[in-house]
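Anyone opening a protein record will find just a pair of labelled lines. A complete record is shown below as an example:
=====
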Amino acid sequence: MLNVYDRIAQISVLFFAFTAVASTSMQNIIFFGVLSGLLYMAHTRQWRLVSTPMNMPLLLLALILVVSSLVNGRLNPSLFGIRKVGLMVIFFATAWVAARNPQPEKYVNAFLLGASLCAVWSIISHFLGWDGGRARSFSGDHMAAGGMYMIGLLVSLARGVYMSGKGRWWCLGGAALFCVALLFTYTRSSWLGAAVGIVLISILKDKRLLVFLGVFILALFLFPNTPISQRASTLINNKYIYSNQERLFMWDTGWQLFKEHPFRGYGVDNLSRFYGKYLHPDAYIIHPPHVHNTLLQLGINGGILAVLFYLWWMLALFFYGLMLWRQHAGENPSPAGAILGITAAMLGFFTNGFFEFNFGTTQVVSIVYFLSGLLPAYESA
């Protein structure tokens, strides 16, 4: 009877992995795994989470966001918005399932396969002009697609540089596919995140990747009139770029709000209620959903403690990934590649967050919880 719980949980996580990029609705299948795990714990009376360095900061981050919303929020939107905090259960569910059946590679394979199919669709729809000029995924706009394809690129690339034979070329081909889809989203913050992740993979495994990255950047300068080059140039020539100026206005307003309530914050999804108080006189967007910076937005949502717990979580995740990578790097190339890819993807996610509130993007943060939840399984893989 107990095996039924395991099977339901494993199938739900596997299905989540395959559909993570395609559909937020189908992602909800993972909650069958959550329910199955809870029933198993109730049956055995063993209420234990898989022990990881990420548990405490995540739980504390969830607590402070809920408390801040209860103190500051109304039933709508704040208490409705904290449903996103519940997505953290994806991390704990994935860790529990993967630890009980330590074959994390099959979940990584399912994720990359599903993401690859979505990338093909994004590229085709872009060439056919169905996406309004910026590639999208099935489950979100170009911003969400950029974050998801950035993660797929880094995981696939790291696995490719560790593998040999056909597996190597399948992974590198997948990385190229994700790279094209990512470029067509024209999402600059995800481009930066991918670049930072590639640098990490280069330093730890294959420094030739730095050459390829350098050649690509050089090509942007040699062919400045291409759409991708023109978009990339706005990273440094931003004086007259509308979106860049709006971000500066949002950061200014967000900082003023944070200084007003640095400890309790304003609650989740309450920004629109207070944004007008410090609205920049030249701002065009008067009710943004967030301020395009994860650290600043978390400070607004839950105060300085939310920022500190988030940084603790990111640091714990990064160094835990590096520790596991060192354990496998010399003996098990396949796990080492996946671990390095996940770690690089988390670094890319963190970098992306300086210009986006990706912690609040359901499609992206769900994948982050899922992939980071696989890491504990590599301790025994």
Q: What stands out?
A: The chain is about 70% helix and 0% strand. The chain has one domain: 2-235+302-379. The two ends are 26 Å apart (CA to CA). The first helix runs from residue 2 to 19.
